[in-house]
Design brief:
By secondary structure, the chain is α+β, with helices and mostly antiparallel strands. Helices cover 43% and strands 17% of the residues. Strands 13, 14, 15, 16, 17, 18 and 19 form a 7-stranded mixed sheet that branches. A hairpin with a 2-residue loop joins strand 14 and strand 15. Helix 2 runs parallel beside helix 3 and helix 13 runs parallel beside helix 14. The longest helix is centred in the middle third of the chain and has 39 residues.
């Protein structure tokens, strides 16, 4: 095993790094702090002087800003914001601090850097940016998840109803966000039943010649083949949008009017269809106690602690409909209270996601700090309150119960992961808990991508995953691809940087393992433990064979062996990560015209060539003389095109 070299500590960023115009004052010693505060420059750490809290506090202004607690090794311990820097920082240096966690942090402080900003809102934004960048040890951290799904209604002539994940824009109408993809798909399915909107892609919609199965089972009104006119379809789209906005009673009222009109016109089949829509809507309203007749958008955030684990559970109500919830487990939360974890979640979550009309919480952080933070991030007043009415109280109780269930599930999962890791360490005599796995993905040699995923401690470390675009090898040569990926991954480890794993897994057989071992030997890292994971008969899980690079007999573990289950989990994740990277690369290349790589071919000439020959295949079949006949194509350029497309 290689010793893990110490990582260089992060530098405390300046105000310029964070994009906030401010004045920076610092901490040690007192005369330097006063001088630098006046000059507006960040302080430098005193080499050996003891920390003097009184001298620091004498230099701090009663202005809003951000402070950074830094230890003797120049590592940022904690980042915080303050309405008054002087009062807030002074609260840390009391004689008996009520929080053992914070008392431990204060004992390590060597200096405090401060950044003065123009308002409390600016302080909040700067604090969040610094926390995200530095990941201080004593700040409560939540995983940065920006991929909440939405329901989208496009603005085509016949709008499409669809699941959507990503950045929103003004070219469509978006409803959400939803806590999970399951909640979105359930809502889309419900809307299909009630309003029969199309869900197919535009390319499919434009080329239909007869109705699809969804039309046959009454989940689509068939706009692709003229089964419904644009005006009637637009009416259904409007009702669907109103439903998503929480205007269910208004939707039912309009449908009642349409049903009465159809019945009066003796269109009884149409009246029956509308009646079924109304019944579906009323069934949705009566289905759950958690529905609200006010049609409001609210979030419910509850923090619960059990047996040393803290869970912050976020539930979403959109348009009066409870859409489900999602649990979050903070990092660096040992010793913190549920109220502290909840406040940290609100500040980090609403920095990246839009805030609803109001937020119900439990427990409520003190001093209305949560309400000020969320309102500042939302750019409008957003109440953060404890519930008083029966319905919001029920929402909070549900969220708390689900948080406790999530804690129980996580505890069980951690226990299982611990047993699997221990079995793996005992089986191979490993000293550490870091496992890295490599896999290769390509399609007949096209767009090869290698993945390297990391497992450590309690689970997969997604922030440390890496992909390698494999280049300069014979297409389809998996052996050369594995060798290249291993060389590139451990080159820095060999030079004394980065972290060496306790075990390397190679998804493959003897050939791949031999090439990976050769790469490690070339780097001088042949002492790193490594095994290959060869798929069993019919690629059936549980029949894998473990291959050793030193020529030992292959090992086949029982299908239920804890170590094998962990190996399978890490191997499958490496495969998933490689395949997703390969598909993205392949899709990008296939959308790129080969003409773009030819000097002298711009958008206009490319368009003229494709239009003249009817596509890339016709262009590839053309001779030099035919190419010269296109306006703007000289003989020299025609010869280059002809050579490039051969």
């Amino acid at each position: 095993m290689l010793p893990q070299p110490p990582s260089s500590p992060p530098d405390a960023p300046s105000a310029e790094d964070s994009g906030v115009s401010s004045t920076v004052s610092s901490a040690l010693p007192a005369d330097c702090a006063a001088t630098e505060a006046a000059a507006g420059e960040p302080s430098s750490p005193a080499a050996a002087s003891p920390f003097d809290a009184r001298a620091l506090l004498a230099t701090l202004p009663e202005l809003p800003g951000v402070y950074r607690m830094i230890d003797a090794r120049d590592v940022v311990l904690y980042v915080g914001k303050a309405k008054s820097l002087k009062k807030r920082v002074a609260s840390y240096f009391r004689e008996h601090h009520p929080s053992p966690r914070i008392a431990l942090m204060v004992a390590q402080i060597a200096r405090v850097d401060t950044t003065v900003v123009g308002s409390e809102a600016e302080a909040l934004l700067l604090e969040n940016n610094l926390i995200k960048r530095l990941s201080p040890r004593y700040n409560i951290l939540f995983r940065d998840d920006k991929s909440y799904p939405y329901i989208v209604l496009t603005r085509d002539e016949f709008p499409r109803l669809a699941f959507y994940r990503g950045a929103t824009d003004r070219r469509a109408d978006y409803f959400g966000p939803y806590p999970s993809s399951v909640a979105v798909r359930e809502s889309v399915h419900l809307l299909q039943k009630m309003f029969r909107l199309r869900t197919c892609e535009n390319s499919v919609f434009a080329n239909r010649s007869r109705p699809c199965l969804l039309f046959q089972i009454r989940r689509c009104s068939g706009p692709c083949v003229g089964e419904v006119d644009a005006e009637a379809y637009a009416g259904d789209v409007q009702l669907a949008a109103m439903f998503l906005q929480g205007k269910q009673q208004e939707v039912i009222g309009r449908l009642n009017e349409s049903m009465q009109a159809a019945a009066a016109a003796l269109a009884f089949e149409e009246a029956g269809r509308i009646r079924d829509q109304i019944q579906s809507l009323r069934h949705v309203q009566e289905k759950q106690y958690v529905e609200s007749s006010r049609g409001e958008d609210v979030d419910i955030v509850v923090a619960v602690e059990e047996d040393g684990l803290i869970c912050v559970n976020l539930a979403m109500v959109r348009g009066g409909r409870h859409l489900g919830d999602r649990p979050f487990f903070p990092g660096n939360a040992a010793g913190c209270t549920p109220a502290e974890a909840l406040l940290a979640f609100l500040q980090q979550h609403y920095l990246a996601h839009p805030a609803p009309e109001r937020v119900f919480v439990s427990p409520l952080p003190a001093d209305d700090e949560a309400g000020v933070a969320v309102s500042a991030l939302a750019g409008r007043p957003t109440p953060v309150v404890e519930p008083r009415l029966s319905m919001p109280r029920h929402w909070v109780e549900m969220a708390g119960q689900n948080a406790r269930l999530a804690i129980s599930a996580r505890r069980a999962a951690l226990s299982m992961q611990g047993k699997r890791l221990q079995a793996l360490q005992e089986l191979f005599g490993l000293d550490g808990d870091r496992v890295e796995c490599f896999d290769i993905s390509h399609t007949m040699g096209e767009s090869p991508v290698a993945s390297c995923v990391v497992y450590q401690g309690e689970g997969m470390r997604r922030s440390e995953y890496r992909r390698f675009n494999i280049r300069d090898i014979t297409p389809g040569d998996d052996y050369a691809a594995i060798r290249q990926a291993v060389l590139r991954r451990y080159d820095k480890v060999a030079s004394g940087e980065g972290t060496a794993p306790a075990l390397i897994l190679i998804d493959g057989g003897k050939g791949q393992v031999a090439q990976a071992a050769s790469a490690l030997e070339e780097l001088g890292l042949s002492q790193l433990p490594m095994i290959g994971v060869a798929k069993g008969e019919a690629r059936k899980p549980g029949l894998e064979t473990l291959i050793f690079p030193d020529g030992r007999e292959p090992l086949q573990l029982p299908a239920d062996h804890p170590a094998l289950l962990l190996i399978q989990e890490v191997r499958d994740e490496a495969h998933r990560f490689a395949v997703s990277g390969h598909r993205a690369k392949r899709g990008k290349q296939r959308k790129t015209s080969r003409l773009e790589d030819i000097d002298g071919i711009g958008p206009k000439r490319r368009k003229a060539l494709i239009a003249h020959f009817g596509g890339l295949q016709g262009l590839a079949d053309a001779g030099v003389e035919q190419l010269c006949s296109v306006s703007g194509i000289s003989r020299e350029l025609a010869e280059r095109i002809h050579a490039a497309l051969r």
